[in-house]
Write a structure and sequence with these properties.
Elements (H helix, E strand, L loop, with lengths): L1 H11 L3 H17 L19 H8 L12 H29 L4 E2 L2 H10 L4 E6 L6 E5 L4 E3 L4 E4 L2 E10 L1 H10 L4 H14 L3 E8 L5 E7 L2 H20 L16 H11 L6
Parallel strand pairs: 6-7
Antiparallel strand pairs: 1-5, 2-3, 3-4, 5-6, 7-8
Helix pairs in contact: 3-8, 7-8
This protein binds iron/sulfur cluster.
The site of iron/sulfur cluster has 12 residues, from α3 and α9.
Length: 273
């Protein structure tokens, strides 16, 4: 009877085994996810493309939306982040080999911080991560906590080295425009300000074929103004406990939608936000 039941089940749900496996895999995958706690007193440069309210929620450790286990993006994003981290290490290894062969100079981040301090920039080296691949630093003027991918020198030009792994489709549009994406400019501008350099070498890589498209970018005064003003707004709001205004253009990947909507609904009648 049970053999017959199994046959019936298999007929009704021909991919039941695979689906069960996938469900268990995904459940386990979420337990492998590594999350670094967001610092309360600092903003991370990678947040600068997000809405100021989102950064405020991160810094104040506000409650995130419940995880929707039916949303495939929850699982896909774990792998995308992991493959980005893996590729960073491999690309950085190539940079070290380029230096060994005398093609470029890699300026290590603690040295870059000392050079920046000599220019009066209030950046500090905090610590290395466990395997000494990431130099964690902060800047007490802008209240930034950062870890730049590197600083390279070629033909007497120093540039922040910023690796970005993106989808094939996105890389195609970057190739066409020959411009870095706006959130990436804000992030790398923060590194450039903290390290006292004017150039950024964006090293775009697509996730399918690992093809590359580097862009040398000169940081503009306007980039610095946008970054400085956003940081000042978030700092002021954190200091005074005031929630920053929303930016509804940035909501797609935000993990604070429920909290944000509840705040909107509370204040909407008075129209105070
Ligand atoms: S839901 Fe939208 S407006 Fe609200 S914090 Fe997130 S990104 Fe900002």
């Amino acid at each position: 009877m049970s053999a017959l039941n199994n046959l019936i089940k298999e007929f009704e749900h021909p991919r039941a085994f695979e689906m069960k496996f996938m469900e268990l895999y995904n459940k386990t995958l979420l337990t492998c996810k590594e999350e670094q706690p967001y610092p309360t007193d600092f903003t991370r440069p990678s947040s600068l493309g997000k809405c100021a309210r989102n950064i405020f929620f991160e810094r104040t450790h506000a409650p995130k939306d419940p995880i929707d286990l039916n949303n495939p993006w929850i699982y896909n994003s774990v792998g995308i982040l992991e493959s980005g981290t893996d590729r960073h290490e491999r690309i950085q290894n190539v940079l070290f080999k380029m230096e060994e062969q005398g093609f470029i100079k890699n300026i290590d981040i603690p040295t870059a911080i000392k050079d920046a301090q000599a220019k009066g920039i209030k950046s500090e080296f905090v610590k290395w991560n466990e395997d000494k691949t990431e130099a964690r630093c902060c800047n007490t003027e802008y209240n930034l906590y950062f870890q730049a991918d590197g600083l390279v020198e070629l033909d007497n030009k120093k540039a922040v080295f910023e690796i970005k792994t993106v989808s094939c489709k996105k890389l195609a549009s970057i190739r066409k425009s020959q411009k870095p994406l706006p959130p990436h400019i804000l992030q790398a501008t923060a590194y450039a300000m903290c390290l006292g350099v004017d150039y950024i070498l964006f090293f775009y890589e697509d996730r399918d074929f690992t093809s590359h498209f580097p862009i040398l970018y000169k940081v503009t005064d306007e980039d610095k103004r946008v970054v400085t003003e956003k940081l000042a707004l978030v700092d002021k709001c954190c200091r005074e406990g005031v929630i920053p205004p929303p930016n509804k253009l940035e909501c797609m990947f935000c993990t604070y939608k429920e909290l944000c909507n509840s705040i909107e609904n509370e204040v909407a009648p008075e129209g105070e936000l």
